[in-house]
Amino acid sequence: MTVWYSTQHNEHDTPLPWNIEEKIRIFEDRVKNWTINKARQFRGDTDAGYAMLSLVLSYFEMIGLYLAGATEDIQAFLEKRRNNEPSRQRFEEGVRSVAEHFNGWPKQQELEKAIDRLYRALRCGLYHSGMARYGVWVEWSKPTAMRFARDELIISPEALVDNVYTHFDSYIETLLRPQTEKDSELRNHFEKRFDLDVTRKMEEIHTKGALLG
Fold this sequence. Notes:
By secondary structure, the protein is mainly alpha-helical.
């Protein structure tokens, strides 16, 4: 059985150990083709708004972890999650990073309100109850990803998915071609988190495979 690291990379054409560029390309392929591009396939389907949001909401916490280079052991991380603070903190950092790239997103105090609504009503609603909770509505084919109307957070799934795609493209470009000291720091943070999430797991799989013969 061939071990696939992503849709385009497997143990034969991209064998371990990986260099940094290979890690970035594997990561790019995994995130784009397992989540973001799947969400984009729903464009134009007005019944698929919450399906699109379910696919891309995980992006915020994930990108927050990679931007920070969070390297705590997974088990230790789970032990600290009783009050959801680590999870929410990374989610908030991810949303702020995306919001910085687009003029149409809420700003300052309104952004903090949007983050709270995104996390509690949309992220937790979809993942724990299968539907959005109070205060969040979906509208279709609008150019702005989110806005407030009468204290309700109105989200355009198509615009949000497009914004996430653009943000991720920019992040990958920074990792591949760092221009500043900050960019290089982001690249180091990425590799630390990727090794924790992916490299270590793949090394364990190959070690077990070798032992099993």
